[in-house]
């Protein structure tokens, strides 16, 4: 049976660290002009239901750098719009691919696909999870601080990115606080499951962003309305107004704090230009690291 990454829960903490190490080594070699051709003739298939700049292109670039190539198709192109059954699509497409990335609304679709696929399935974002983003963020934190034993304060929605970061925190011992308006927290069943799997997890939620960031090493945010929530955007804009990451909020954090965002950002909503482009921002290092993490992940999963 192939290994999959449908969620970070598919990994042990030791495996997670192994992926970070592979990615860091490959990044170092890449900087020296060394692009090991680990996967000549191998094929990456990307099956996406939602748009993507970073994820799609960093995966494709990563596979090209390693000597392989990539195919891209929308879930509709693949026939997952009712043209044929999920089982049939998964059997056929995995017989052409060496690894498959999937970006979907439903997490269940990725989970179901992984049951059938004969090659590894990597979750490239669902409504509930974004494991490759969280792995990349750990890599970026490790590069910046020399370790991941930091306090990350996520100011915003208890969404896919927040939940994957919370799992990443639980797996590595990192402290994670979500500063979130009431009604937008990470779901109660998610928290129960996280604490059942990782009873020592330092993961908490608060509605006070100023107090939360006062001990932050990293302030992190993401869009208030995720892909698929466009019709809720106005309602969310009102609910999240007091949770904008701006100069005033960053002034409540220690002077050494770093700012992170998975991107795309809605500048002027969840974050202001001065913070995005300010000295504490490491958002573009984060975005670049998507590619290095993708190579480390391919090296591990294939
Ligand atoms: N951070 C991220 O996943 O970006 P894309 O949606 O552009 O892939
Ligand atoms: N929470 C965002 C992340 C985008 C990378 C979304 O799902 O749209």
Draw up the topology in text.
Blueprint: H1 13-31, E1 43-48, H2 54-65, E2 69-74, H3 86-96, E3 99-103, H4 107-116, E4 121-123, H5 131-145, E5 151-155, H6 160-172, E6 175-179, H7 188-197, E7 202-206, H8 209-213, E8 218-221, H9 233-239, H10 247-250, E9 258-261, H11 273-276, H12 283-301
Parallel strand pairs: 1-2, 1-3, 3-4, 5-6, 5-8, 6-7, 8-9
Helix pairs in contact: 1-5, 1-12, 2-12, 3-4, 5-6, 5-12
The protein binds phosphoric acid mono(formamide)ester and norvaline.
Phosphoric acid mono(formamide)ester is lined by residues 52-55, 125, 133, 262-264.
Sum this structure up briefly:
The chain is of the alpha/beta class. It has helices at residues 13-31, 54-65, 86-96, 107-116, 131-145, 160-172, 188-197, 209-213, 233-239, 247-250, 273-276, 283-301; strands at 43-48, 69-74, 99-103, 121-123, 151-155, 175-179, 202-206, 218-221, 258-261. It has 12 helices and 9 strands.
List keywords for this structure.
single chain; 302 residues; alpha/beta; Rossmann fold; four-stranded parallel β-sheet; 12 helices; 43% helix; globular; binds norvaline
SSE arrangement, N to C:
HEHEHEHEHEHEHEHEHHEHH
Strand order in the largest sheet: 7-6-5-8-9
The SS-based structural class is alpha/beta
How many domains is the backbone divided into?
2
Q: Give me the CATH architecture of the largest domain, please.
A: 3-Layer(aba) Sandwich
**Helicity range of the residues?**
40-55%
Return the CATH topology of the largest domain: Rossmann fold
Described by the principal axes of the CA atoms, the overall outline is globular
CATH class of the largest domain: Alpha Beta
**Ligand names:** phosphoric acid mono(formamide)ester, norvaline
Q: Kindly report the name of the CATH homologous superfamily of the largest domain.
A: Aspartate/ornithine carbamoyltransferase
State which percent range the strand residues make up.
5-15%
How many DSSP-defined strands?
Answer: 9
Distance between the termini: 12 Å
Average predicted confidence as pLDDT: 98
* Poorly predicted parts: none
Number of helices: 12
């Amino acid at each position: 049976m192939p290994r999959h990454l449908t969620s970070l829960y598919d990994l042990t903490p030791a495996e997670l660290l192994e992926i970070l190490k592979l990615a860091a080594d490959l990044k170092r070699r890449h900087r020296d002009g060394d692009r090991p051709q680990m996967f000549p003739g191998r094929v990456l298939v990307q099956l996406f239901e939602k748009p993507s700049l970073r994820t799609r292109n960093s995966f494709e670039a990563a596979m090209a750098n390693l000597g392989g190539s990539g195919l891209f198709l929308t879930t509709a192109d693949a026939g997952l719009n009712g043209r044929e059954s999920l089982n049939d699509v998964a059997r056929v497409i995995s017989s052409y691919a060496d690894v498959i990335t999937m970006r979907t609304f439903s997490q269940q679709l990725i989970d179901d696909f992984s049951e059938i696929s004969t090659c590894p399935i990597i979750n490239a974002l669902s409504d509930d999870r974004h494991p490759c983003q969280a792995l990349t963020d750990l890599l970026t934190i490790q590069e910046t601080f020399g370790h991941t034993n930091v306090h990350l304060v996520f100011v915003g929605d208890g969404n896919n990115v927040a939940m994957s970061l919370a799992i990443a925190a639980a797996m590595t011992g990192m402290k994670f606080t979500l500063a979130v308006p009431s009604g937008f927290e990470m779901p109660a069943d998610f928290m129960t499951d996280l604490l059942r799997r990782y009873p020592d997890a330092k993961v908490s939620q608060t509605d006070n962003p100023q107090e939360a960031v006062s001990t932050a090493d990293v302030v992190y945010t993401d869009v208030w309305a995720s892909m698929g929530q466009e019709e809720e955007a106005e309602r969310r804009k009102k609910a999240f107004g007091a949770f904008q990451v701006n100069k005033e909020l960053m002034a409540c954090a220690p002077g050494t704090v770093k700012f992170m965002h998975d991107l795309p950002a809605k500048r002027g909503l969840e974050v202001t230009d001065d913070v995005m482009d300010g000295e504490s921002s490491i958002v573009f290092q984060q975005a670049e690291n998507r590619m290095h993490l993708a190579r480390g992940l391919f090296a591990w999963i294939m």
